[in-house]
Amino acid sequence: MIRIITSLVAVLTITSVHAQTTVRETPKLVIGITIDQLRGDYLELFQNTFTEKGFKRLLNEGLVYQNIRFDIPNLDDASAIATIYTGTTPFYHGIVGNKKYLAFKQQEISTFSDPSYLGNYTQDNVSPLALKASTITDELKDASRGASDVYSFAPQISQALITAGQKGNTAYWIDDYTGKWASTTYYKNFYWTVDQDNRSGADFSVKAWGMQWTPLLSVKDYKAFPYMQNMTSFMHNMGTDKATYIKAKQTPAVNENVRNTAVKVLTKADLGKRTSPDFLSLTFYAGNFSSISDYSFEIQDTYARLDREIGILLDEIDKTVGLKNTLIFVTSTGYYNSNESAFKGEQNVPDNKFYVNRCEALLNMYLMAIYGKDNKWVDKFYNGQIYLNKELIKQKEISLQEIQDKAAEFVSEFTGVQEVYTSYQIQHGQWNPVMEYYRNGYTKETCGDLFVELQPGYKIVNEQDPNFKEKQVRNNAVVCPVIFFGNGIKPEKIKRTIKATEIAPTVSYIMRIRSPNAAREQALSELL
């Protein structure tokens, strides 16, 4: 009897160990879905407008992490997506935003501007070479010796270039002025179905021209916000001018275009039918439209329509490759551009404003009084950073650390300034969580000399620049879930916040390839 029991225990133990060490099959297709400005609270609030095939299916059948954390100042879609796909911060991958300021040229340019390459269906000259670290897609191309196909589709240039990486087949974005799918001659292949869409009369450029956006559902179903007094419905005309496509890219129509074109390539290019995994990167938009209030029917309609696009996409994947053969990961860009202006109330509360141009001028006068009146010591106040005239500082043989410290001390006295950090402090100062936060978002090639942190509630304005976009300072956290779906992944809800830098190592682990070359995190333990 004892022998029988012992034998049964041994068999059960071996079976248990075998079950625990079963290796998940390598996916035949990986689909990275990034939803710009996706909010987790909206996924909860708008559930009554969703079908069972879109967001609900992802949330109910996927492995869902409650939130993602980026730990980067001045987060936007470019810096967020680069962090997700490289598994590291701008300090290593080099992308601090969609645009950058070149101090030596005194010029703001696109981060990915590259005159060495021409545009396909666009006047933009760009390439992905601004990325200083490899991406998931680059590593996949290396591992498969180029056999894996990698395509990306996105509304904006940076979104497409980052997710395709430097070794992808092609990155596609929607051109601001033609509405057509655009790319760069950096990539050698322009897939024929995309070219066919551009030449047809049924593409986005034709549909968006003069398009009207009206609600998908009855506005009675859009009942998440009780703050929309006297609003009955909405209708937005995209017009027929040079701003048409820029506006249309802020509507649900752009998500339909991304999904529709991606599905065509998915089927025509036989993605997911090879020995090595293929990779399809899609970026959708879930932000506000134009200057519409945060509390609107429009944002609810955007989510309702995006829910349907995701449902169609999942069905098409299941038909062509099979969801069990496909790894899908869904992430947000971790920020939200608010259009809400402050209500003054009966007390007529005054606006708190921080004037960029005044700060720049007064700091220059202060430094002139110390170091010489005939010179311009301040080059530019740009994107929360102050650029000093390094060429002049070097010429006058002034200590850069010294002048940065004096400038920081002066600017910190301005009304509305919470703190000022110098680039020397960020690079060489004593470690603390605040310094690490700013160091994560620092690159010596394009960042300024001073990082200026403003108090929440202040409005950033520039009286001398008519093109300057005023911005209200808010420090609210945006809760954004991360979802892993398909490929045999079991449904589970994990109530913890993960780092954005953990996603690339996790996807790499599942694909059985190396992590991107600057990624230091391990794969998420629930997916090991």
What order do the strands of the largest sheet run in, or round the barrel if closed?
5-8-7-6-11-1-12-20-2-21
- Overall strand count: 21
Shape: globular
Number of helices: 18
State the separation between the terminal residues, measured CA to CA: 39 Å
Radius of gyration: 25 Å
- Let me know the average pLDDT: 93
Low-confidence spans: 8-21
Q: Tell me the β content.
A: 15-25%
SS-derived structural category: alpha/beta
Helix content: 25-40%
The largest sheet is:
10 strands, mixed
Task: Write structural notes for this entry.
- With 528 residues, the protein is α/β, with parallel strands linked by helices.
- It has 18 helices and 21 strands.
- The strands form five sheets. It has a ten-stranded mixed sheet, with helices on both faces. A four-stranded antiparallel sheet has the order 14-15-17-16. Strands 13-18-19 form a three-stranded mixed sheet.
- Helix 4 runs parallel beside helix 7, helix 11 runs parallel beside helix 12 and helix 13 crosses helix 15.
